[in-house]
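Thymidylate kinase structure dump, as promised
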Amino acid sequence: MGRLIVIEGLDGAGKRTLARGITAELTARGCAVSSAAFPRYTEDVHAELVAEALRGRHGDLGSSVHGMAVLYALDRRAAADALRAELDAHDVVLLDRYVASNAAYGAARLHEHADGDFVSWVRDLEITRFGLPEPDLQILLRVPADVAAGRAEHRERTEADRGRDRFESDSSLQQRCAEVYSELADADWWTPWVVVDGVADVDFSVLVDEHVRG
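structure tokens r here:
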């Protein structure tokens, strides 16, 4: 059984870059690595509905914190069996976002903290009821909200398929989300967390040795 490693952080934090660096380091060491990202916008109907709602379709769906959270959760539930198969076939499976994203963004939208009702509700839904595969490690790629926003804006200008949605464009929401993420990491919510500075250069060899390989 492989190790499930999750990368969490704000939009524009650099999660893809971190995933590529970890993958390169592990591959160089002879490890079999698989990766995926949530939401699976091009693979799952629930994620498709999320993308459409974030751009104003489906009436007031995008305004419903719990409604959107259920769609995010159903996307992961639909992927659970395939994820378990990937864990059976690989040494490490890297995920760009997972359950904690749902908890952090929903709590931030409701102006709650990590110890609030929404995070507990997400845990009951995705972890207890859906029984999603448990991460061995959750990595918070921490950057200041203004830095993440600047990166996301640059990405939007330079990559045709990376336009920001309504959550990504909301600076106050991103700031609150950063605070909830930090609270989740500090509490080792669900499984162990490690915080990586998303502004400084990452030593992938040290990160893999100390945390990813276990």
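Helices lie at 15-28, 45-54, 65-89, 99-109, 117-129, 145-158, 171-186, 204-212.
lmk if u need the other ones
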